[in-house]
Design a protein that fits this description.
It contains eight helices and six strands; from the N terminus they run H-H-E-H-E-H-E-E-H-E-H-E-H-H. With about 240 residues, the chain is an alpha/beta fold. Strand 1, helix 3 and strand 2 form a beta-alpha-beta unit. It starts with 6 loop residues before the first helix and ends with a helix.
């Protein structure tokens, strides 16, 4: 999937990045880097992970929109903006398909293989940082909405997550602020990643209004800008 940006949209992107980075000045409680030295952050390679893919569409909205496609659209924009500011990246997937190995045949085998391949990509990359893009779903409470960040136990994952969450609260969740939280130990990718990792649940597939927003290119770009600005704050430090 290739993101084509016209000149007018490029100026909009630059303006959006400037606004979001200005918002960093209002973030008072972001933690500083601990495990990564400044030299490590200069060499960091960001693994941009678009969750799910292929036969595994993830959560599906009431009108049939699959999470996997929205994840990829946001991840592509995150990758683009990171490149725009000079950051080296790798994407776990760049198209609609998952990344399972050829010997996987059943859906379960494909899901397991896909996750293991993503973990290997992260753990085999020196100075990796994982940014994983997902969507939430809570059909029993369709009014719940908003973006929330989760982090693994590798520092400075928590601080990075809190910075990204603060920006999402300011630019996306206004009046519906959320707190960054440690990820549940059942999430295989985050549990087994040896790199600082955050998982961003960008919205709720169970909320019809939010699904419409999540399909908007402008909204996807706003989400991507918040995520990139949060990472760059730590990169800068």
């Amino acid at each position: 999937m290739i993101l084509i940006v016209k000149r007018s949209r490029l100026f909009a992107i630059i303006g959006l990045i400037a606004i979001v980075f200005a918002g960093l000045l209002l973030v008072k409680n972001a933690k500083t880097v601990s495990a990564f030295s400044p030299q490590s952050w200069q060499k960091a390679v960001v693994i941009v992970d678009a969750g799910h893919g292929g036969e595994d569409g993830g959560a599906v909205s009431a009108n049939g929109v699959a999470e996997s496609r929205i994840n990829l659209a946001i991840a592509v924009r995150v990758d683009y903006l990171l490149h725009f500011v000079g950051q080296e990246t790798l994407m776990t997937r760049t198209g609609e398909e998952a990344i399972y190995s050829s010997d996987a045949t059943t859906l379960r085998e494909k899901k397991v293989s896909d996750l293991k391949n993503r973990v290997s990509m992260v753990n085999e990359q020196e100075n990796a940082v994982l940014l994983s893009i997902h969507q939430n779903s809570l059909p029993s409470h369709p009014n719940v909405h908003g973006a929330q960040v989760f982090y693994n136990t590798v520092e400075p994952g928590q601080g990075m997550a809190e910075t990204v969450q603060a920006l999402l609260n300011k630019n996306i969740n206004s009046g519906n602020e959320k707190a960054a939280k440690p990820i549940d130990n059942s999430v295989y990718l985050m549990k087994n990643s040896q790199a600082p990792s955050i998982l961003v649940e960008c919205g709720f597939m169970s909320n019809g209004n939010e699904v419409r927003l999540l399909q908007s290119e402008d909204y996807q770009l706003r989400l991507a800008a918040c995520i990139v600005a949060g990472f760059r704050q730590y990169h800068k430090e």
